[in-house]
């Protein structure tokens, strides 16, 4: 494995030309995992860069390596760190953790009183979130901002979300509450994770299996009529 040195910093107008590469990699990564994500356009990613609400990772030679951005909901009461992506050739270097840590710090600086949440199907991301102080929670503990949930309409699993009345889906909800951390621990769905990656992996596999079987069963039932 080669040794790379990465520069991770807030994205600016100097990084706008990376936007299309970032969105393409987001889409390809979702397809490879067999799960869906809310699609984002290059224009949307550029807006986040110009607003100072994104973090980008580059090699010392200026090669794009990773990215993540901030979304605010409910008039800034909730914040999501979204679109975490690492270029395939730079995975296995711990870069995702470093990017996630930097976007978390940026979120705390810009929205110090906001609850920070995420929806993810990735066990590794869940592990990183857990190390930062997030806990798995029910969907009801997330923002009720309709604009956030509209973003799920472009996800391939949106029908599962709708069938569950927006209370569950393949993604696991995680929350960091700076004001009421003790209370957040009380509403956690699984207190036995103990930041163990294997348990996160087992959880995501089980949830995916259950949700996709429900979807298949529903489709078979509908095909009878």
TrEMBL record:
InterPro entries assigned: Acyl_CoA_acyltransferase
Listed name of the protein: Acetyltransferase (GNAT) family protein
């Amino acid at each position: 494995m080669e040794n790379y040195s990465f520069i991770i910093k807030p994205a600016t107008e100097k990084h706008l030309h990376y936007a299309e590469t970032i969105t393409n990699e987001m889409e390809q990564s979702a397809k490879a995992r067999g799960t869906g994500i809310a699609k984002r356009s290059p224009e949307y990613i550029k807006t986040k860069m110009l607003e100072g609400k994104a973090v980008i990772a580059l090699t010392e030679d200026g090669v794009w390596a990773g990215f993540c951005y901030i979304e605010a909901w409910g008039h800034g009461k909730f914040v999501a760190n979204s679109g975490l992506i690492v270029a395939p050739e730079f995975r296995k270097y711990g870069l995702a953790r470093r990017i996630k840590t930097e976007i978390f710090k940026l979120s705390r600086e810009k929205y110090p009183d906001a609850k920070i949440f995420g929806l993810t199907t990735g066990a590794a991301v869940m592990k990183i979130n857990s190390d930062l102080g997030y806990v798995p929670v029910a969907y009801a503990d997330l923002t009720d901002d309709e604009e956030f949930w509209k973003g799920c309409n472009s996800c391939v699993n949106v029908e599962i979300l709708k069938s569950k009345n927006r209370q569950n889906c393949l993604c696991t909800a995680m929350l960091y509450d700076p004001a009421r951390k003790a209370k957040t621990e009380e509403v956690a769905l699984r207190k036995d994770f103990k930041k163990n990656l294997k348990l996160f992996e087992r959880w995501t596999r089980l949830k995916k299996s259950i949700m996709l079987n429900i979807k298949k069963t529903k489709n078979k039932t509908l095909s009878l009529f």
